[in-house]
From TrEMBL:
It comes from Afifella marina DSM 2698. Residues 230-282 form the HAMP domain. It is an enzyme of class 2 (transferase). One of its GO terms (molecular function) is ATP binding. This is histidine kinase. Its EC number is 2.7.13.3. Residues 290-486 form the Histidine kinase domain.
Amino acid sequence: MSRAPFLRRAVSAVFPDRGTPARLNRQGLRRSLRRWRRRLKRIRPFGGLGDRLMGRMPKGLFARSILIVVTPIVILQAIVAYVFMERHWQLVTERLSQSLTGDIAALIAVIERYPHEPGYLDVTRLAADTFQLTVSILPPDPLPPPVPKPFFSLLDHTLSEQITQVIGRPFWIDTVGNSDLVEIRIRLDDVVLRVFAPRRRAYASNSHIFLVWMSGSALILLAIALLFLRNQIKPIVALAYAAESFGKGRNVENFKPRGAREVRQASQAFLDMRERIERQIEQRTTMLSGVSHDLRTILTRFRLELALLPEGEESQAMQNDVEEMSRMLEDYLAFAKGDAGEETEAVVLPDLLETLADHARRSGDAVVLNFSGEPEIHVRPTALARCISNLLTNAAKFADRVEISATHRDGILEITIDDDGPGIPDEDKEAVFRPFYRLDDARNVDVGGTGLGLAIARDIARSHGGDIALEDSRLGGLRAVVTIPA
């Protein structure tokens, strides 16, 4: 029997807006499925409760691991406590209360059925010898007002329920006043029966030991789990620190793969990657050193040959070309080499900035310097100096006034360089960091340069784990903001 009619009817029932089964085709079915998928994606289960819970989840791996361990323990303890309270503790307390209530009912029957001597001495002896109860007969005064009960009083609730069901007379109980005894008063026809019963006769007083043991064992298990979790998290934290330090150009000498197999594999992969990168950098540096030596040799030969020529306009123009080629070569090599090979060291930042500012002032630029925060920082000094120098040179080319503001607080170094030049359009503020990129308007090629200054500066900042952003300056020109974690 063919299933086609059944499938057509099923499709028609699920997607009634697609027309009759005869008109349904594969393309229409796909469109309907896509539409229903989009509708289902827009449904937010539990009113977005899941999103709110995820937003409040701990961010760290250690905290999330603790939550994963603690949550099942808490749920299990709650279930066990509920079952224990519901099935055991309450049942035991109920049966003890039934026994005590039955004894009191027997005493009431004796009092009402048989004559007694004054003082009801026979009843008190019977209660003490047979039921271990202390009984006294009081005048028929009104019962005391109810005693305030604890928030959770299983004994009060169970005992009151049993007295109501078995005895059915007005009563008053006090389970709070004396920790070892339970006082019960029951109003009879012409007297009030007062009974003092040991608490253990109506209440499973040792049941809390189980709860204490359960809570204590849970805390011990949790402490052991936290100890093991911390030891498992340490290698991951060490790997993250080593990767971050390597990204900032710092070398972690004592880093070794530790922890679980997967963590050791990730650590070993990081070490292999670091070794390959360092080997490539070393090979590139060696190659560039050889190229730079050969090119400088040729330029030196040009200078010597030009020095032997008679002075004139042509020789001077050739001399300028050689100097320009030398500057371009230095920029190209600096961009290609980056800051490879330089180690980080402690630098007094105000002294470094003041040296760069003085150098700019000697060139005729008006430079103002302001610094605040912690003076010492661990960076690659030569690379950082080149980064700031490139930004200063770029600002001084197009402006009459340059201001440097630097702050170093909470592990963040921020250097701001403002100028009063023509600025850069917003659409070009990111493009100028590309190598050899030149602007065609105010900051143009007429001022010279290779187009690598900003690219080198950003490369240095990023090698320190930071970045450079360009903004509009309050002086009317361009603002360069260097941010480096240190």
